[in-house]
Every structure is written in structure tokens, then in C-alpha cells.
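Batch 3, record 17
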Amino acid sequence: MLLALAVLSAAALSAAALAGRAEAQDVGGALAQLATNKYDDTEAALSVLALSGDPAAVGIVSALAEGRLVFGGTPPRVFIQGEGGALLDPLTRQPVADAPAVKPVRVNNRVRRAIEAASGALSLVSPDPAKRLEAAQAVGRSRDVAALPALDAVLAKETDPKVKSALALARASIVIGQAGVSEADRIAAIEVVGAQGNQDALALLRSVPADASPAVKDAAAAAIAGIERNLALWGAAQNVWYGLSLGSVLLLAAIGLAITFGVMGVINMAHGEMVMLGAYTTFVVQELIRTHNPGLFDWSLIIAIPLAFLFTGLIGVIIERTVIRFLYGRALETLLATWGISLILQQAIRTLFGPTNREVGAPSWMSGSFEIGQLSITYGRLWIIVFALLVFVALLAVLRLTRIGLEMRAVTQNRRMAASMGIRTNWVDAMTFGLGSGIAGMAGVALSQIDNVSPNLGQSYIIDSFLVVVFGGVGNLWGTLVGAMSLGVANKLLEPYAGAVLGKIALLVIVILFIQKRPRGLFALKGRSIEA
Amino acid sequence: QETIKVGVLHSLSGTMAISETTLKDTVLFMVQEQNAKGGVLGKKLEAVVVDPASNWPLFAEKARELIEKEKVAVVFGCWTSVSRKSVLPVFKELNSILFYPVQYEGEESERNVFYTGAAPNQQAIPAVDYLMENEGVKRWVLAGTDYVYPRTTNKILEAYLKSKGVAAEDIMINYTPFGHSDWQTIVADIKKFGSAGKKTAVVSTINGDANVPFYKELGNQGIKATDIPVVAFSVGEEELAGIDTKPLVGHLAAWNYFQSVDTPENEEFIKKWRGYIKNDKRVTNDPMEATVIGFEMWVKAVEKAGTTEPDKVIPALIGVSVPNLSGGFSTMMPNHHITKPVLIGEIKDDGQFDIVEQTPGLIVAEEWSPYLEGSKDLIADWRSPLNCGNFNVKTGKCGGAGQ
Amino acid sequence: MTEALLYLNAVTVTFDGFRALNELSFTVDPGEMRAIIGPNGAGKTTMMDVITGKTRPDKGDVFFNGGTTDLTRLDETEIATLGIGRKFQKPTVFESHTVLDNLRLALKGQRSALPNIFRRETAAERECIDAIFETIRLTEHRDRLGGALSHGQKQWLEIGMLLAQDPKLLLVDEPVAGMTDAETAQTAELLREINANGHSVVVVEHDMTFVRDLGVRVMCLHEGSVLAEGTLDQVSANERVIEVYLGR
Amino acid sequence: MSTSETRPPALLTTSGLVFLGVLGAAVVLVPALNLLTAPDSALHVPTYVVSLLGKYLTYALLALSVDLIWGYVGILSLGHGAFFALGGYAMGMYLMRQIGPRGVYGDPVLPDFMVFLNWKELPWFWYGFDLFPFAALMVLLAPGILALVFGWFAFRSRVTGVYLSIITQAMTFALLLAFFRNDMGFGGNNGLTDFKDILGFNIQADGTRVVLFVLSAVALGLGYVLCRFLVRSHFGKVLVAIRDAETRVRFTGYRAENYKLVAFVVSAMLAGIAGALYVPQVGIINPSEFSPANSIEIIVWVAVGGRGTLVGAALGAVLVNYAKTYFTSGLLAPYWLFMLGGLFVAVTLFLPKGIVGTFYDWRARRRASDDIPGAEPAAAPKPAE
Amino acid sequence: MLEVDDINLFYGAAQALRGVSLTAEPGKVTCVLGRNGVGKTSLMRAIVGQAPVAKGAIRFNGEDITAMAPSERARRGIAFVPQGREIFPLLTVAENLETGFAPVRRADRFIPDDVFSLFPVLDSMMRRRGGDLSGGQQQQLAIGRALTMRPKVLVLDEPTEGIQPSIIKDIGNAIRYLRSKGDMAIVLVEQYFDFARELADHFIVMERGAVVLSGDGAALEDPDVRNRIAV
Ligand SMILES: Nc1ncnc2c1ncn2[C@@H]1O[C@H](COP(=O)(O)OP(=O)(O)OP(=O)(O)O)[C@@H](O)[C@H]1O
Ligand SMILES: Nc1ncnc2c1ncn2[C@@H]1O[C@H](COP(=O)(O)OP(=O)(O)OP(=O)(O)O)[C@@H](O)[C@H]1O
Ligand SMILES: NC(N)=O
Ligand SMILES: [Mg+2]
Ligand SMILES: [Mg+2]
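Prediction for the assembled complex:
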């Protein structure tokens, strides 16, 4: 209702050239209401401001939205807090002389919605088409009948095609469910809405009144059926996307293990802790950036990736040199030792950083989402997939194409003979374990974006990581890739039917059964040397 | 000099360390404060800390060790319900006292246990009421971790919502495993559920580690509090410390205490706590307050009884009233639960809560929920002559609903 | 044809497109000893893999016991139980069992799991093992672990295990590799003796002196099929055999 | 020199005798010192120590069961905790049924958690658990049948090495998630607890605790003798041969999968018995017993004590758990993971074959002649993969 | 060039070598003979560093390498063809050969033509995995791999084992050819007496871990030698 009034008045204002007549009295009253700092009053004041058309209103509303609208003094007055904390008069924007102690005007969800509506209403006549577009969408969402005449008025004037179609949609959204609309008008509205093809359109179409004419109902039913078919397809695609994105997380978590376990044969129970160290490296990098150079924040992950690689790689080398190297040829003992190491690392982090979660923020390029058709894709997930694939390709290249890659494989297949070929096995072992650990650390940088950065981080990935490596086939990097992706997709396809818990159980059972069929994983190594 | 030993039974390692370590520090802090005030009954307090390592049988073992070997006078401990269930028989057998500081599912009242966290009616129902009244919510998603606390709370809420006229198709219930970290599908489902034209809210009983990825996903998929608010019962300042809260502004939590409570008691407490822990950024939270209340109640009761003898202290505790940090007094009721105010807070961009509503008075815990079939006739009263944790008002007998 | 103990008919095995056995056919009669020679990679070991069930042929049949049993349908254990014993090219013994226990495990007798829990060694079995020890001359090593033997000692132990199994058909892959000339001669003697006792034997070897000592029919494999067959002299006179195998 | 009649290894070796001797002494001394001495006497063993020791002994039995298949067959089960837990649940269900109307809701039949989830009747799989013999049978059958089915599939498909390890882990993880669900009817995360009595005896009475302790010790002793009997039989030799060279065993005519299956099922049943004895002594069973980390810990106990030595497995279980008890109290409590983690690393580095294994080596080396024939074991048993 | 001086070697408490000495010179073949289990392989392992010696010294070009890591010995030019081949099973034939590049200067990192002319079968199987080759093919690969290292000392432990007669002849010719180049010392363990006799410039015969006979090639005709080797 509030919104409708706002739109109506705004439209009327622009139409009737009333813009010059400042309703100073109303605005003054609204400012007084704001100063009481009560939600109800704030809401009421906002509706007055939206109606006022006062040029200062926009500034006041946006100050409230940004938490810069403050109040104080006796009797309480409101001010806008300017740059550097100076208090400005809300109407004149002049610094006030005797600034009292102030507190921000409080905002809750209700007030936030009112702010949105008010600024929407105020910007329906804004010169900026982007603002007008938003305003049109806000009006559409409100579905308020009272806004209809105003909408018609603005619609007639609008020239920007995007805004125009948004306004038309807003109008249709209102018309579609309203009583006393002509059949033709309603069918036209159904068409406009139906063309949207999304979830919101479905909701609107379903709100066609029960007493509408059969023709209208048929049109609505047809549109609904069309959208549902469409959505089902997109829904499947969306699930596959979720699956790939989960798969990329599994891949990241597992890929370091594909080296330390898959290639070297170390049952590396401390793998998860390497991921955790990578995540903490990200945290430290961000802390340093926050305190020293906040402008670099968007670069924090880019900076953290090599640092995490080097740091966890170094820890890996140290672990290899001090413990693992005594255990080659005794694969099962590595389980015991690395289990011990994982306990130590967890507790070390707990002692250093405390047991609670640490905050790792998302750079702006990883926030938000975009849509392809009805597919909603979040940037964060997209980058994680890209990153996982990059790491995979880089690792494959190192192992297949470089000298050190060849030496790594030779050493892990027959350490003694490799030494007799002149390969410095100590060095290669340390590098291999360091590489696996370093990659786990890089994975930690990515995982810090979607999961807890806590001492327990690693534990939550270790089971899945082993599952992926083994499912894909130990010693085969492609297997790890395909294994991770197929487990991710299978999980996400099961989830809608079985729920998260049963879905996960079903997945585990499927893996168990699958291994019966292929006892050496998806990409089993074949040949005499394996079977012997 | 002889001391009075106080047992601390919180996990310092394993999955629960993330929450419980703070409570251990809180007890140590309270012990130090009390000793500075001269101790209790003229004796100094001595904290005995053990680490049950998030391992439930180990909780029972450690409880036994504290009571039998260390001879502690009282134990402050446990977080998860299963850890409490695990130690219960030990406290009953050895007749000692446990203070349990965490919100839980209720359905329990034991002679040896004092519950200073919220029962479901002291948290969940006021939160739902708030959303109905202030946000006009008509459609509900009850999302929880698949275990007993969320299941019970949701059962109670479901019954409550239906009693308020909410249709079954307007309630969606979803459970996830502990530590669930991939929320894409579920958050998308919530979004879908919420786009049906009716105002929708999420009531989250998601517990522990799963929260951070859940909120991160909410932020990623752009679910704003103005569209679909989420109210949580297990997310406090400590949990938010691990999340960038800017995208989450406006989502809610219901507790009996927030760090942002604007009272002199709270300000004082926070100051001292930060001094003790030597970190002027350290946050406080609801279970901490519950621990503090429990501690002070115990001290008061011991002084009243003039001994630490459980048989004397247990009856003395009933009726003890201590100031809570939100400006009122909490009282230990005969059902061994305390009276509490309920606060609704909205998340702010600095990880704190903006308190948007506070119940005018204190709420008495309903340890036996009137919304559950099996317990609606039960009451607990540990005073003579009833002396019973599960008294059936229909049959007039102690011992539940049976015969 | 039904008389044959072992009958391979047009057996083909390919590995990723590479034909290791190519329409290989031959028979071994009951009580026959047969030597098989052929260049490295001719498919000799693969042939044994097929007979013992380690490798499934793509095509072809392998019959045992006069055509009554199709070996390609059985697994390793069943084939072994039928009485086909094998010595591997790379000696494989049970490394953490003593030499004595290695023989005990191989000894013909009960193979089912549950009865073996309560099994006791009989005097006859003990004597049998003693006899084998005499033959393979490892008596003084009897209590050492299999894994601690030298390469040649393992060869002997494996031969001993084969004897202990007392199979109808022995498949022996390069038994004298790594043995001294004198031992080689002894091994030939041993195999002849075994054969004389009614066992059928198929031996693969590159040592021509040894093959000569055996004095039996020789078959030369090449690229997965039979290149020549006959006495050693006949075979070694064959131009192709000289070209691909013996050298000039 | 001319006869192979070397004596078969004795059923009980010196260390085995020492082990059984210590157990026997404990069976006599611990109850006596608990029940017959005054609580303030220096010799008194408090009840909590009795329960603690009882718990260690059930862990030792569990470790023994793992050593049977890991040490002797090379099957690294990362899911053995599941069998332990199943045995525990079977016992827990019996104990729940014994509560009768003494639960908080006073329902004569339904356990509390069912009342409070609004269940109207007992699910079928709870039938019979009010009878001890049935429950005792299920203690063996539940883990036994799971092991039989799982093993039958896995061993026939020749799933070995890490593949087997990981699917056992997947198995226990799936069970963890399943038992977590309240809908499963096993009490969800809270599990089964608040037991009252067992076979009519108050479960918290000192006498009952002592009896449970004695039973645990006896079960461990018998379990040990059973395992010894198995591993020194011809059957046991085949098991070791399978560990070293499974293919070779098949070519020798043995059905390796059957041998593994028998060992696996026996081991699972032992683990089930351990779980059944464990539950009344600790007073709770919940799904966390199924957690993969628990199963890994069992492996760690065995490795610490010495894989393939039986006595070592039991010793490792007791030592590691004692260390855990000790380190988690007092000043060290916040740092105990450093101690435990350090202990594991140190054992692998300095006692490569575990405590008992290294001791055996040392003893063998002392006895060994310096001549080549008749020398000592040099080749380490090959790892299972 | 290579001098083994009075070494002892133990496996645990069991002694496998007792005071063994041996020398190898460029352009000469030194043969080690003896029955099964007398310690021949152990001696080779000691030379290449795969087993530590308890007493005595091993010198290479005057430098004491007794305690040196195997990889360093290889880098100084000691190449090893072990008994049992020890091919890297999952590497292709080409990659197996390339492992021999480690001690080689960058400029020399190609596979010498000798390898393919000696063992043409390797050329046709470059992409196949080493572990899939037949036993004899693996043996050829092992020798080829050692030659890729351009060694100064070539240690061959029963290189003819499992190899078809024509290739044994080729290997014999190859050894003769390498010897004739004059810059490589060759140590050869051999059971196949005729093969050894044709190649040996020096020989030692071992028994129970000790050297019981030694001499130059001609002395191999002595019937005593055959007796020592016979059972
Ligand atoms: N699993 C496999 N994958 C690919 N090629 C294989 C495989 N197994 C065997 N081969 C190839 O098949 C051919 C036959 O091998 P086989 O081992 O049977 O030869 P052989 O006659 O025993 O030779 P040798 O005398 O050297 O032991 C060889 O060329 C070998 O490389
Ligand atoms: N890893 C080991 N552990 C213990 N003893 C060993 C080990 N390797 C070899 N031996 C023993 O050391 C002795 C010498 O073995 P070595 O392998 O050097 O003999 P060899 O002369 O090469 O014999 P062959 O001709 O059979 O290859 C043998 O008695 C053998 O049993
Ligand atoms: N009691 C709880 N929050 O588990
Ligand atoms: Mg072969
Ligand atoms: Mg040798």
C-alpha cells in the first residue's frame, strides 16, 4: 500500500509538474519521527519521505540505508553523518554547529523493506534508467493494485525499452490476479508473465482467480505447463551444475592426496590438515591485508594461493624428511605416523589460532551470481571449478611432461632401483610429498571460501578425499578427476529425491557396490605388473 | 589450605572444541573472580579441567573421574545433548551436581542436573511469534541438522504453527547430516519454496560446523533477509566470528542473551572477560551467560546451605535468583530450569546482533512440551513433597505416563 | 583327440590390440613331457596364464582331462584343484613363511577353510616333505623365511612346492634361470624322473643344454603361435627358428 | 636333520602365558581389592578404575579382532568399529528393554526416545530384545551377518588392499549416517542410554561392575586363545600366505575368499562381543561408535602394540587408551593431542614393528646365530597392498 | 678403477659377505662365479650401494665411495643391471630408458643408438608399459636402461637369465664391444659358465660369502673352477 502511494504520487508529481512545490512541513514531521528511533515511526516517516518529492528525501533515505542517519540531542534531532564523521543537517547538508552525541537510527528488516520501497518509488522517476529498472521490479514484486494507475502513467512516458518491458511486466503481475479485469487484458497479462518462464512467473500464473473465465484459465494452464516443462529441464541442468561444483570441491580436496597417496602410496591421514593449513594461510594473508593494505583485499586469494602452496609444501617437505622417509615400503605404518601428525597439527592450530572459526572473506569477484536462462550460477562456485581444473591440468603436466615428474613416478615405483639410476631419491621424495601437500594447501585457499576455517576443517574432507581417489582408481590422476565429478553429480542428482542424509548413504552404498564391479576403481590400472 | 573443587567437563579437542572451549574459559574466569571475592564458605575454589574430547563415552568416564577421584563439589559441562545423556547416569549414581548451559530439546528434568540454557519454549516459539507478527511470515522452512534437538524443536514448532492456522503445504522440513557442507541444492530449494508469493522465513536448527557453509551459500545465492529471513537457534556471536556477515545483515537469531545487550552488568562483564582472556576483541555469547548464571546460582546456594554437600545444595538451589546480564533476574525453578527473557536479534555487518525484540517479562521453561503427545501431562517439581521430574498430572503419579 | 590331457584350440589373447597368442593350438598327452622354446615375448608365459586361469582368452578353448573340462570357465583355484600346478617365471614363494611351511602349504591335501582349522600333519606328509627337502637341497634352510632366500634358492623352493602339490600336469616356466650348469643338469634329471612317475610336464626354457638334457619333444612358439615342432634337432635346424630364436 | 618333525608352535607362547597370567591376576586381584578393601585403604581399587579397566579390556578384545584380520590376513579394515557398535547396539537394545516402565515417560514397552518421537508401537526389529539369550545371539549375529554379506561380496569380487579398506570405511560411515537418523529407530544421535539393570542386577552396583570386568577379562583371554588357535593352525598359515601372495595361494588350490571370509566373520563377531561388553560398562551407545575416526583409532592401537602379534594388539589398546585417560586430565589436558600424536609418530619411527613386535625382533636377534643358514627373519612381512 | 677391499656384509645378524675383495678395470670384464646363495648378488649390491657394508672399503677412481648413496655412485658412473630386472612397471619403455638420464649432461640426454641396435625389440615397444613386457624383454630393457646412463662401470647381475639364445649371443657381443671401447669396466655375475668363460678377463669364485678362487680369464679353464661351481 505504501509503495502504491509512493508510486502514485511520484508519477503524479512527474506528470503534473508539481516538482517545485516542496512539502517542507511533511518532511519536517518525518525527520521528527525518525528521531524517535522506533521502527514504526521510521517506517511511517519513510512513506512520508517517499511521497514528499523533496530533493533531500533521496539523500535521507540512502543515509538511513547506509547507517549514516544518526540522531541525538534534546529534543532528539536527526543528522546525516558525512565523510569524516561530521554531522550535517539532513535538509541543507550544512555542517551543524553544536553537534550532540549521536547514535545511528536503527533499522530492521521491515524498515529495510520500507527503505527499498521508498527509494524505489523515489527513483521511478529517476533520470538513471538503471534505477528506474530496479524501481519497476520493486513495484512488480509488491503486486499492489493501487499502483496500477500510476504504473500506466509512467509506462506511457517510458522510452528505455528495458525499463519499459519491466514496467509492462510489473503491470501484468498486478493485473493477472486482480478481480474485475477484462478477459482480454488478463490473457495479455498471462502472456507477458508467461514469457518470463521462471519460478516467479509460475507463482503469478497460479494466482489467477478461481472465478476467471475458462479461456483465461486455459491460457494460464497452458502457460503453467509450458513453464513447468521448461523449469524441469533447467532444474536438471541446475542439479548437474551443482554436482559439478560439488565435484570440483571433491577434486580439490582429493587431488593432493592423489599424489601423496595415489602416487607415493603414503596413507596420508594428515592430508586434511594440509588443506586446513592452506585455509589458515588465506586467513593470515587476509588479516595482514586488512591491517596493512585494505585496498589489496580483492587480491587476497591470488596472493594466498602461491603462499599457501609454498607454506604447506614446506611443511610437507619437513614431514617427509623427518618422518615419512623412514617408512617407505611400510605403507601401513604411514597411517599410524600421519594420524599422529594430523593430531599434532590440529592441536597446534587450535593452540595458535584458537578453536573457533576464523573469518575468511570473499573478494568481490567471487561474490554474487549471474543467470544463464533459468540456470543460476554463483561466481564463487564458478571460480572454484575453474581453479580445480587448472590445478588438475597443471599437475598432470608436471607429472607427464617434466623430468621431475618422471623421476617422481620412477622413485615411487621402485625406490632402490631409481637410486641406482642416479636419481636423488631423497630429494625427489621430499619434492613429491611437498608437491602433494602444497596442492592440498592451494585447495585450502579455495575451500576457505565455502567452509569453516577451523582446526577441524581437514577432518571433514579426509574421508571424501580417500573415497574419491580410490573410486577413481589409485595412481590415476584422470580417475581422480572423473571420480570426483561423478560422485559430485551423483550426489546432487540423488539429493532431491532422497534428501541430503539418505542421499549420502545411498551414494556410499553405490560406491561400495561399484567397487565390487571394478575392484580397482573407475580407471583401473591394468596389466601384468598390477595383477602379480 | 583446603579448597573446594569445581569440575569443568567441556571438550577441548575434537569437533565440539569449537564451541565448548569458550565455556571452559568462562568457568575458569568465574572461579578466578569468585576467589578474588574470597572464595566460597571461606575456602578458595579450584577448577579441575578435563578434556572429554568430543567423545561421548569419554564424557561419562571423565565425569566419573571428576566426581569419584577428584571429588569435585559440582561440575559445569556438556554441550551436546548426547554428552549430557551420557553423563546423566553417572551424576545420578554418584549423586553430584551438573550445570548444563546450552539450549536443548527439553523432555528431561533430573534431580542432579540444573539446566541454565533455554528449553524450546524459551527460544523457538517467541522467535516464530516475532516473525509472524513483524514480518508477516506465512510460509515456513524448518531446516535442521538431523538429530534430536532439531527434530524435537521442529516437532514442537510444527504443532505450534498448525495451531496458528498454517497449512501443511506451507511448511517445508529439511534435515541434513552433521557437518553438511554443500548447501547449494537446499538453499536453491528454499529460494524456490519462498517464491510462491507468500512471505517465507527459514527457522534454522542447523548445528555446529554446518552453519558457516550454509550462511556462505545464502550470501552467494543472494538470499537477503528482506526477502527470506532466516532465524537461527544455534548461531551466536562465536559462530558469526567465522563468517563475513555483510551479506547476512538482517537475518535473525533468538537467544536469551546477546553480547550487544545494553546493560551496565553486561558492559562490566565483557570488560572483565576480555581482560581475563587478554583479547579485547573476544566475543561473548548465550551459553557463556548461561554458564555464568549457573555458576552464581551454585555459589549462592552453597552459601545458603552452608555446605557443598549435594543433598543440601540441590534443594537450596531452587528459588535462587541471580542477576542475568540482560538486566533482570533469573530464578532457578522447581523444574531445575531457569527463567529467561527471550531476545530476537538481527545480524549486523560487524558480526554482532541488533536486538529487535525482547520479551517484556521472563519466560518459565516448559521442560515437558505441551505440544508433544507423550509429555503434555508431565510436570517436574523437585521440591518436597513431589520430588519428581516426571509427574503425571492426569494419573497423579511420579514416573511418566505409564499405568 | 579326446585322449589328450590338455588341448588348446585356436586360443587368441590380445592386450590392447596386441596379439600375445594368435590362434594357438596344441595338445599334451597324458604322461607326456613337452619343452617349449621361443623368443622373448613369443607368448609362452601368456600361454601358461591362459591354462591356469590367470588370463582369459579372447577366443578359443582350453580343455583338460580328455576334453571333459573346459578350463576357460574355471578360476585359478578350481584349475589348481584339478591337478594343474605351476612354477612361475619370477619365483614367488610365501615370503614370511618358513621354507618348511611353504612346502606344507603346497602339500597335496585338504584345501577347504574350516577343516584346515583342525588339521594335523600326518606322518606320511612329514615323510613326503622330507623327501622333497632331499631333492631340493634346502634342508638346512628349512626354518628360514622364504623371503630371505637368494634368487636361485627361491627357484628351488618353488620347484619343491610344485612337487609337493603332486599335480597331474606341471607347468614349469624357466626353472633353471639363475642356476649353475650342474644344477641345471640336476633339474633336468628331476623333471625326467617326475615325468617317469606318470606326471605330464610342460617346460618353458631358453637353456638349450637343458632342453637337450630333457630329451623330449620340443615346440617353438613365435608371435603367439607354433612355429615348429619336433625333436630338438629338428626344431633347431629349422631356418625360421634359427632366425628368430637361436641366432647364427 | 633328516626329518621335518619340528614341533608345531605351541598354542601358548611365553608372551601368551605372561599375557594370560596378567589377565588372570587381574581377574582375581581387581575384584578383591575393590570389594574387600576399605575405601580409604591404600590398596583399594575404586569402582571407577574397575569400570575403566573393564572398558580397556573390551577395547583390547576389539584390537585383537582387528589384528586377526589385519596382522594375519592383511585385511586393513577401516570399518571395524561398525561391528563393535552393532554388538553394542544389540546389547543396548536389551538393556533398553530392561528399563521397562522406569523410563521418564513410564511407558512399559516403548523406550523413551520412541515415546517422545510419537511412535505408537515397537518396531519389529526391536522384538525379542527383551530376552537376554536372543540379545546375546544378536550380539554375534548382527556383526557376523553384516561381515558375512559384506565379505562375501568383497572377497569374491577380489576387492583388496586400499580398495577394501576404503569400502569398509564407507560402510561404517553409511551406518553412522543411518543410525544418526531418528527415523531408524535406534535413538538417533542420543543413542541408547540410562540403562537400569542387566539380568536383574543393578547395572551401577559395584558387584555388577566387577562381574562385567571379570567377564571382559575372560572374554579377552578366550578371544586370545581362539585367535592363537586359529593362526597357528594350517588355516592360519593359509591366512598369512594370503597376506603375502594371494594369487599364489589361489594357484596352490586354496579358495582364498573363503579363508578370508571365515577370518573376517570370526573377527567381526569378536568385535561384536567386545561391543556388547563395552556398552553396559560405559552406559551409552550412540552412532559416534560408527565414526570412521574410531575405526582408524583401533588400527592405531594395533600398530602401536605390534601388528600380527595378538598380545601386542591387546597391549596397544590398553596403553593408548590409558594414555588418553591420563593425558586428558590435569594440566596437560589442553595439549594431550600433542602427546598422543607424538607418541604415534615416535612408535612408528623408533619401534617400527610396534612395542611387542620390536621386542620379538630384539629377542630373535639375541638368539640368532651369525651364520647364514638358520638365520633370523630379515624380510619384513610385506604390507597388504 | 673400481676396487672392493675386504668387505663384510650382513642381513640383520646373518653374514652374507666375508672379507671379499675384487677389482675392475676399464676395458676389462671381471666375472663373479659361484653357486646359488653364495653372495654374488650381495656383492653387487654392495658395489652399487644398495646394501651397506659393515667392514672394508669400496673405491672408485681412488675416491672412497663406501658410504656414498647409490644415486651418487650412479652419478659417478656406476650402472647396475640387477638380478630380477627391476623394471619400473608403470613407466613406458621409453620412460624406463629415460630414467637413465639422471647422471647425464643435458646435451647427452638422448638414448644411445647402441641400445636399439642391440635390442631392436625395445624400439618397437617404446609406448608399452615396462611391466607388461615378457621376462626376456624386460631383461633387455634393464640392460638398455643401464647403457643410457653412459656408465664407466657396468655391473651386470646374471644378465642372460631368461633371454633367448640369439640375444644371449648379442649380449655377449655387446659386452665385447663395450670392452673394446676401452673406457668401461664391466663386472659380470654369471651362472652360465660358457658365457662367462668367453668373456672373462678376470674372475673370482665365491663360496659361502667368501672368495675362494680368483685369477685371470685363462685360469677359468682349470677344472678346479668347474668343481667349485658344481653342486
Ligand atoms: N598385460 C599385458 N599388456 C600388454 N602386453 C602384454 C601383457 N602381457 C604380455 N604382454 C605382451 O605379450 C607378449 C607375450 O608375453 P609373454 O610373457 O607370454 O612372453 P614369453 O614368451 O613368456 O617371453 P619370455 O621368454 O621373455 O618370458 C609380450 O610381447 C608382452 O610384452
Ligand atoms: N634380504 C635378505 N635377507 C636375509 N638374507 C638374505 C637376503 N638376501 C639374500 N640373503 C641371503 O644371503 C645369502 C647370499 O645371497 P645372494 O643373493 O647374494 O646370493 P647369490 O650368490 O646372488 O645367489 P643366486 O645365485 O641364487 O642369485 C643367501 O644365503 C641368501 O639367503
Ligand atoms: N543441545 C544441543 N544444542 O545440542
Ligand atoms: Mg615368459
Ligand atoms: Mg644372485
